[in-house]
Amino acid sequence: MVARGDLGMEIPIEKIFLAQKVMVYKFLDGTDCVMLSGETAAGAYPELAVQTMAKICVEAESTLDYEDVFKRIMKHSPVPMSPLESLAATAVRTANSANAALILVLTRGGSTAKLVAKYRPGKPILSVVVPEIKTDSFDWSCSDERPARHSLIFRGLIPVLYAGSARASHEETTEEALGFAIKHAKSMGLCKEGDSVVALHRIGTASVIKILTAK
């Protein structure tokens, strides 16, 4: 977080802009979220303040060259990457090349979707959190909604909880979850019939990236 007030206590105020630019350059352009603080958070018009901030964010996003942002992030990413991060980056590259309307990620803990968000795709990421059901032969347990809630602070991530499935096989459950995700995305206006959608998910111990057509 770049806090101008705190910077002003440490360096001459006329140099604050330079310090901000240096920090933004070093960490690459791109912000996960913005914070209303001070007068904007405690003022008499909180709703208007949030609406104005949202308009500013939309305008700022519209000026970005997402393919260039992706190339710069790749240039500064450590090599070798972990297998999971490599897949996340590939999913974004595929979405850019295919001009996909959406990236779908089936996840349990949210880590995969957050790595996709790191590479700043120009399209939304629907993070479908699939509950994990465990049993120790005596009791059953199911993971909660925390991974979905935590995803809300990451740029471009739109989390949704999948209710789970009684399908017998992992493959059937995955296909059912993908169908649910596309239907949900269409209802939210994230894609429409005929659009290309990049999906990233696991099948057993393998991870798969594929291009789907919204139906």
Automatic annotation (TrEMBL):
This enzyme catalyses: pyruvate + ATP = phosphoenolpyruvate + ADP + H(+)
**Which is one GO molecular function term here?**
pyruvate kinase activity
The yes or no answer to whether the keyword Oxidoreductase is present is no
Q: How does it assemble?
A: Homotetramer.
The answer to keyword Lipid biosynthesis applying to this record is: no
- Name the record gives this protein: Pyruvate kinase C-terminal domain-containing protein
- Keyword list, A-Z: Potassium
Q: Which residues form the Pyruvate kinase C-terminal domain?
A: 85-208
Q: According to its UniProt record, what is one Pfam family this protein matches? A: PK_C
InterPro entries from the UniProt entry? Pyr_Knase, Pyrv/PenolPyrv_kinase-like_dom, Pyrv_kinase-like_dom_sf, Pyrv_Knase_C, Pyrv_Knase_C_sf
